[in-house]
């Protein structure tokens, strides 16, 4: 039987629930759940435990301070959550810093949750598990057919891009930057997307967490393309942060800078969200890596040239 009331505490899962035609079951969300726009009507049950304004360096310092003291980066309103009496709570174990985690949910509920309440925890380490998580959400909602159709559509778009990308004369090297200060490269599903889009990722490995970088690592690799997509940042905010890179010694001598191939992408809405819009993320990467082959129309809203 389908759950009557669902609380989703991860933005990608909220998108998945809605994409499966089950948005009417949602009764609660996290502060990061903002798509589709209709979810804004739901009760917001979480908030950051740190100040999220200011520089990326400042945010990183505050996050690491919380983690060092074994404190969560997020707060959940456990009382309001219990009052909603959800049949299903969706959370994640992929990253305790990026979003509300299973540990956070259990801590907020304590011994109080109704035994009938199911907790579904997602762990999208790579593209394969990302698609499996969509299937798991579909199963929990009793919408297996809808999830099968959605996954088929996503795979179709992925296949269309990868098939065309294989016709490219060369594969540019690509650096995907997930945090600016300190530097971090994108991992998990992102290296796979870069390859599918016809590029060669110089940092990060599929299925592994995003690695920290030293500035000299970027200078040594000197990639053809640099895409900056900080976790949780939109395009305007990332543009404001770019000075942390441009003042670095050797920035102007980087090949991607000299050839005008540095891009800013909306990491918050697309690349950092392992949900149905992963196909859009791939298509955007294809536009940036192979502009001679792809034109989907995302420039200006999903990514810009820096």
Overview of the structural elements:
It contains 13 helices and 13 strands. The radius of gyration is 20 Å and the shape is globular. It has 306 residues and is of the alpha/beta class. Helix 5 packs antiparallel against helix 6 and helix 6 (144-165) packs parallel to helix 13. Helix content is 39%, strand content 15%. Strands 8, 9, 10, 11, 12 and 13 form a six-stranded mixed β-sheet that branches. A five-stranded parallel β-sheet has the order 3-2-1-6-7, with helices on one face.
Write a brief structural summary.
39% of the residues lie in helices and 15% in strands. It is of the alpha/beta class. Helix 1 links the parallel strand 1 and strand 2.
Percent range of helical residues: 25-40%
Proportion in β-strands: 15-25%
Number of helices: 13
The main pleated sheet reads as: 6 strands, mixed
How many beta-strand segments?
13
The whole-number mean of residue pLDDT values reads 92
| Spatial separation of the terminal alpha carbons | 50 Å
Q: What is the general shape?
A: globular
Structural class: alpha/beta
Radius of gyration: 20 Å
Runs in which pLDDT lies below 50 for 5 or more consecutive residues are: none
Order of helices and strands: EHEEEHEHEHEHHEEHEHEHHHEHHE
